[in-house]
Amino acid sequence: MVVICPECRKEHHIDENRIPPNVKVAKCRACGARFPLPVFAPSPDTETAPGTEGKKTRTIGVALSKGGVGKTTTSVNLAAGLAHAGYDVLLVDTDTQGQDAYMLGAKPKAGLTELVTKELSPQEALCQVRERLWLLAGGKSLAGIKRLISRKDFGGEMTLSEALKPIESAYDFVIVDTSPGWDPLTVNALFYVTEILTPVSLEVMTLHGLLEFLKSLASIQKYHNTMALKYILPTFLDLRIKQSAKIMEKLDKLYGQLLCKPIRYNVRLSEAPAFGQSIFEFAPGSHGADDYRDLVRKVAGREDLFES
Ligand SMILES: Nc1ncnc2c1ncn2[C@@H]1O[C@H](COP(=O)(O)OP(=O)(O)OP(=O)(O)O)[C@@H](O)[C@H]1O
Ligand SMILES: [Mg+2]
Questions:
Q1: pLDDT, tens digit (0-9, with 9 covering 90-100), for 254-304
Q2: How many Å lie between the centroid of ligand 1 and the Cα of residue 172?
Q3: Boundaries of CATH 3.40.50.300 in the chain?
Q4: Fewest CB atoms within 10 A around its CB: which of 27, 80, 146, 264?
């Protein structure tokens, strides 16, 4: 990697793998100027980049065709929680709303579009948003990718897989946030991931909507048989509302093992995005943070996480 001193423009050839993680500033050997080091994303090309060796990456799609059920809130907080627990995590936003970057207080110049079109290298398309957490941002430019997918005669549904497969081994988890509905990018996301996490809002949920979604999922499974529904996550639980408890009962009967502990309705979860913070940063003592910590433990399969 070549780093250019902003003062004297001298080029320095450095091995980013030898920079200790806590070192953020460099000193130019030629002119003595100090300047911030660029952030190095883990790269599949560099054998010793942080955590790149022998990772068994898990790919999790957060999906339900219904809007406003907590997909983005879950993707962001699950990704942030896993990173906080010590895993290397890539969060991929496949939605033109581009909410994931906003929720993490990031303003990336590039993202998933540039990775898919190969306009930029993976290193340039990725944005490190926290320690151990990288983002491939979504946003309006993804509309062009949807057109590109639709124009392909063959293999359009593999577009996202082709872009992500070469970089995924640098991460323990790739979390893919999807948009509501069934757009080509959501279908692509479902062809890429092997695990599905479906948030179901206990406020607006109808079992019918969930069953319809699961039918569509099954039709994709025919062609992508390593993908499976792994988690059903009830969201917006409010026990003052009778319907919530009833739906929980039904879900438990239907999905027992797959059912996660619910995420309660918690106003802190809706306030955190405006501050660009995860729930763990914004309100670590809130119900919202407690509930998402439970989800992180379940997904990681580690009950000991976050014990202090
Ligand atoms: N458990 C919760 N308690 C209170 N508010 C929540 C909770 N979960 C999410 N919210 C809020 O509800 C709104 C919708 O959540 P979110 O954006 O995560 O849903 P989504 O499924 O990603 O929506 P879309 O389908 O439009 O992408 C947001 O304003 C979010 O802050
Ligand atoms: Mg969303």
A1: 999 899 999 999 999 999 999 999 999 999 999 999 999 999 999 999 999
A2: 25
A3: 58-300
A4: 27
Distance CA 78, CA 121 (A): 26
The DSSP symbol for 206 reads -
pLDDT at 48 over 60: no
Structure-model confidence comparison of residues 97 and 23, the more confident one: 97
Q: Please provide the DSSP assignment of 74-123 as one string.
A: HHHHHHHHHHHTT--EEEEE--TT-HHHHHTT---S--HHHHHHTSS-HH
Which ligand number lies closest to the CA of residue 93? 2
Report the CATH fold assignment for 58-300. Rossmann fold (3.40.50)
Measured from the Cβ of residue 22, the count of other Cβ atoms closer than 10 Å reads: 5
58 Cα to the center of ligand 2, angstroms: 21
**Which residue has its alpha carbon closest to ligand 1 atom 8?**
70
H helices of 264-306, in order, are 267-271, 279-282, 287-300
Scanning the chain, the segments in alpha helix (DSSP H) are 71-84, 99-103, 112-117, 122-125, 142-151, 159-168, 184-192, 207-221, 242-255, 267-271, 279-282, 287-300
Half-sphere exposure of 220 (CA within 13 A, CB side): 24
Q: At which residue do the structure tokens 């994931």 appear?
A: 100
